[in-house]
Amino acid sequence: MKIRNGAIFSSLIVLAGLLCSIRINAQQRFVLSGTVKSKKNGETIIGASLKLLNKPGGVTSNEYGFYSITLASGTYDIEISAVGKKSDTLTVSMTKDIVQNIYLLEEPKGLEEVIVSARTRGGRSISGTQTGVEKLSTREIKNIPVLLGEKDVLKTIQLLPGIKSAGEGNSGFFVRGGSSDQNQILLDEANVYNASHLLGFFSTFNSDAIKDVTVYKGGMPAQYGGRLSSVLDIKMNDGNNQDYSVSGGIGLISAKLNVEGPIQKDKSSFLVTGRRTYADVFLKASSDSTVNKSKLYFYDLNAKMSYELGSKDRLYFSGYFGKDKLGVGDQFGIDWGNTTGTVRWNHIFSKRLFSNTSLIYSNYDYKLRIRSGSNDFSIFSQIRDWNLKQDYQLNAGAKNNIRFGWSSIYHTVRPGEITASETSSINSKTQQKRFSLENALYATNTWKVSHNIDLTYGLRLTNFMVLGKGDFYNLDSKGEIMDTLTYKNGEVVKTYWNLEPRLAIGYQFNASSSLKASYVRNTQNMHLITNSTSSTPTDKWVSSTNIIKPEISDQVSLGYYKNLAGNKYELTVEAYYKSMQNQIDYRDGANVYTNEAIETQLLYGKGRAYGIEWMLRKKTGKLTGWLSYTLSKTERKIEGINNNQWYNARQDRTHDIAIVGIYQLNKKWTLSANWIYYTGNAVTLPNGKYTVGGQTVYYYTNRNGYRMPAYHRLDFGATKQLKQRKKWSSEIAFSLYNVYGRENAYSITFRDNEDNPNKTEAVQTSLFRWVPSVSYNFKF
Q: Which domain range does residue 398 map to?
């Protein structure tokens, strides 16, 4: 096992601090614990704030609504607040340990809804140590206009600082200089490897099934790992355990339905949410046989059940299934989709110790079919995970909260299987499956050093084993195979060990301002091989091998946070620097789709990303929203590319601006708009051309040495609340995407001028100008 001395030293500091900071206090103390829930539907509330009034201190509920706080003997007034809920005050006399479940009422309807929800968990916390975190409420997602009126989590987070859109209509995103595969996307703890519907125009996440959305851009807590740049943690609703309800919506392109209710009131619940587009219905109306036999739709299904087995145990079963089908007549077709499943067991060992055990399944696959002339073949690819995970949360006293646990993931990757007919010029072929086991052990402690200083320190130890069976290779400096090594089933080919320290500190100047700094190391062993700026269904996932090493990043962040004008406004400024090792790019002229040994097509080097992010958010009043601006740079340096000099990464952008506004006109009408601008992506364009056999061939020199045109767009939305009855409510929503009809560049291609072949023309392709939409939503 090779671990650098610096990493060992870091781990010793973390472990020593973990032991030394937990001090025994002679004063008698007691524990107040319980679960925070919604009074209306019994849903547990994530991140509810429990704040001591007139005294320093407080705590937030975890991702299952559980809280635990240690207090000295005495009487306390505690304010409990959460997004979308009315605040409440609890008075407790701490003369013994107390278990107190808390039920919060819904916010009143109307203008107060906007005012109250913006006050709470929608923004950042001034206290604590966490940097680089963004949170969105489902109400914000609901009101922000996006393409074709579909409320979309991935499109909405792209309006936040440091998170960049992968392009027009695309749900892919880049975070602080990372590529799209360096984002870990979790749905109820399950990895989602391709979060796109219809080639990226929609995301896989149905907003009606979502309870909580959190994005970590830096300073990731130690329980997260496996990606370099970010974690997008999405939690599904548990289901209503008080009453049955049905909701849904019908739009221009899709329809959705949500059903939930109690299995046993107060004890168990279920949730089923489905969605389907129906563009294919309109295609069938065409008289053209190629068009009316074409396919263009997706569907998805979310389901969840929860059971309270007693005061200390709760079981959750959740799953997602989604599929896209796209085809042109009988000539071409592609299907792709995700399947996830999670079984979780919550157990409260004591008033101080909370446990969660999870068994998680994740599968992504695609099948491409082509029929042209005598050729008739299909290509199948798959990545599948089984994950066992154990997490503990320990209230170790008034000043320490510890989280520790482990996880183990078994990866199976099928890079590509070609099945061809006897008449095809292409032969059937199966690329080797790849197997690996990814293990992690972690511990972290949040220590209240003083009334204005908080410290979080932790360590994550990862072990990645490349497993047989299969052939593995040794390559020379030119990428050519020198030797082939054959391993048996389950035999260990290569083992990688990595230590990932975490350190964060927060200093609170006063009740309205603070300064935070963090350092985090991340490693990544699953890599997406793509030649586009964003994910496509046919991109290849590969695991680390004896040649492809784990990617490693080290990120430092510094942030200043300020609440202004009596907490009506929130100002955030964060700067970061990230260095990256073992970054992957292509050799010039690489072909990653037909070569058996993909390692022969790849080169490896280092990267760096740095920038500064500003965000000003208005949290109260009729008008709420935010202004965000990111100034950044992202580069790579890989031997064999760009004369071994630093060059722009594909996702490099200098400027990124977003303005979002939501205006509550009255009790019936809510208006919204957003305007975005960003520098064009870095691209590789031809530097010249020559003719071979009467055909024009372009040649390229500088990798990503040019820019696409700058992008900007204005969207507008309006929602009208229709008549409401006791058991029925409905609304109609309108939106206009790209209000002033800007023809933004989706791609640029080159061709010879018809009149003068020596002259080259650049041809810009644009996707959307004006895209109106209307949808009707109901609930009963």
A: 133-779
In a domain, 706, yes or no: yes
Q: Return all residues near 476 (Cβ < 8 A) that are at least 6 apart.
A: 482
Which pair of tokens denotes residue 216?
Answer: 């970590």
For residue 248 the two structure tokens come to 């849904």
The angle at the Cα of 660, spanning 105 to 231, to the nearest 5 degrees, equals 70
**Whole-Å CA distances, 60 to 52, 63, 78, 123, 138:** 12, 10, 12, 14, 19
Please, which residues have CB within 8 angstroms of residue 753's CB and are 6 or more apart in sequence? 759, 760, 761
Report the alpha-carbon distance of residue 640 to residue 603 in Å, rounded. Answer: 7
Rounded CA separation 587/704 (Å): 14
Q: Which residue is listed with tokens 């009790």?
A: 667
| Residue 8 domain flag | no
Cα separation of the two ends of the chain: 60
Q: Strand, helix or coil at 642? A: helix
Region of 169 please: left (phi>0), alpha (psi -120 to 50) or beta: left
Structure tokens at 40: 């209306």
* CATH number (domain holding residue 548): 2.40.170.20
325 is a domain residue: yes
Tokens linked to 638: 């890989």
Q: Half-sphere exposure of residue 682, counting CA atoms within 13 Å on the CB side?
A: 19
- The residue assigned the tokens 């997706």 is 298
| Vertex 30: Cα angle to 29 and 32 (nearest 5) | 145
Q: Which residue has the tokens 């990757």?
A: 413
List all residues 6 or more positions away from 579 whose beta carbon is below 8 Å from its beta carbon: 553, 554, 606, 607, 608
- How would you label 588-612 residue by residue, b for 16+ Cβ within 10 Å and e otherwise? eebebeeeebbbbbbbbbbbbbbbe
Of the candidates 63, 42, 113, the one whose C-alpha atom is nearest the C-alpha of residue 236 is 63
Q: How far is CA 762 from the centre of its chain?
A: 35
Q: What is the number of H-type helices and E-type strands within the chain?
A: 6, 51
**Nearest residue to 256 via CA among 291, 210, 294:** 210
| Rounded distance between C-alpha atoms, residue 242 and residue 264, angstroms | 9
CA–CA separation, 717 and 674 (whole Å): 9
Give me the DSSP letters along 166-222.
-STT---EEETT--GGGEEEEETTEE-S--EEGGGTEES--GGGEEEEEEE-SS--T
Question: Does a structural domain hold residue 139?
Answer: yes
Name beta bridge partners: 69: 32
Token representation of residue 362? 């994740």
Question: What one-character DSSP code corresponds to residue 601?
Answer: G
Distance CA 265, CA 161 (A): 42
Q: Name the 3-class secondary structure at 587.
A: coil
Mean pLDDT in consecutive groups of 10 residues from the start of the chain, 780 residues: 47 49 60 92 90 86 92 92 87 92 79 37 69 82 73 87 82 88 94 84 85 91 95 94 92 90 94 89 72 82 94 95 85 89 96 96 91 82 95 92 96 87 79 93 95 95 95 87 92 96 95 95 91 62 93 97 91 96 84 71 94 93 93 94 91 94 91 93 84 79 87 92 85 91 86 83 84 88
Tokens standing for 524?
């990544």
Please give the backbone phi and psi of residue 420, each rounded to the nearest 5 degrees, phi first: -125, 150
CA nearest to 176, candidates 163, 188, 186: 163
Residue with tokens 């006293």: 397
Rounded CA-CA distance 255/126 in Å is 40
* Count of structural domains within the chain: 1
Q: Are 143 and 717 in contact (CB under 8 A)?
A: yes
Predicted TM-score (pTM) of this structure = 0.90
CB 71 within 8 A of CB 398: yes
How, if at all, do strands 429-430 and 434-450 pair?
A: unpaired
- d(CA 106, CA 418) in angstroms, rounded, equals 55
